User: What shape does this take?
Amino acid sequence: MIVGIPKEIKDNERRVAIIPAGVAELTKRNHKVLIERGAGLGSSINDDEYVKAGAKIVESPKDVFKNSDMILKVKEPLESEYDLLQDRQTLFTYLHLAANEKLTRVLMKKNIKAIAYETVEVNGQLPLLKPMSEVAGQMSIIIASQYLQHMYGGKGVLPGGVPGVKQAEVVVIGAGVVGLNAIKMAVGMGASVTVLDVNIDALRRLDDMFGSRIKTLASNTMNIADAVERADLVIGAVLIPGMKAPTLVTRDMLATMQKNSLVIDVAVDQGGCIETTTPTTHSNPTFFVDGILHYCVANMPGAVPNTSTYALSNATMPYVTLLADMGADRVVRENEALAKGLNVNNGRVVCSGVAEAFKIA
Assistant: This one.
């Protein structure tokens, strides 16, 4: 199989979908790897390293897409890449289609076999989403410590406070991988942390881990509203695999917060769990709604590509080699994890969450 890796073009996206070790593994199995020139530079991987591992460097994204059986990416194709996709090509990347009807329709029209990292599932876990969720969860608090500063539009609060001054009130909605990593960072900085989730067993596990250092609440409209009203920072960390994120924080709730408080919606890729969420970029990451500062960057881990690229490739490569060895048609019949990752196939949406989002039969 010919596996193609184009350079990522999303705003300030410096990750790349494969590392030299991955190239070596594929070429050892007699597959060919095409990589667009400079694709790895943002992650401190130069073209020579890929060539030594067995890849061929090509000059343009067109060369990659036109000559590859499978396209391996980090982020979903953008509009400038739609026409590059080839009929019946396999696409393996983060897709988040439930928040992107236009791309969904393009993939259907072009008969793309679209397999989404974020819906590959093993024993109820999402192994290809987990490493980037870990990164995004930790980053949410690092970013918050910056944007809570007055010069960046925040209310001028230090997360951990100092002796004699109260800590920042941090509310984390969602106790999954993103939420857990946000909690670790916030507790480490000394903030006062409240976490909400509908899964009481998940809250029990957090209570066992952190004890009195955090407060846990069942996620319901009243508890969310009360927590948000007191918060200096709200982290949206909700995920329903393959589906659009539910709106849990309303604009009316935000109106009860003190001015210049901060919300960070890590669920933005799936449409966001905060009513006022609009996707932003690393170049223009924030905006205000009703005096509340919003950070809604849709590719947060792209800001730390040297960590993110290697973490992602470590997780994806076993599945990449399966796809290359067996081909997409066979592998989705025989491998349950990748079958759950399949979102679009032969012109049809086969992921129920995406079909439900756009009322596609």
Observations:
- The chain has two domains: 2-126+305-358, 130-303.
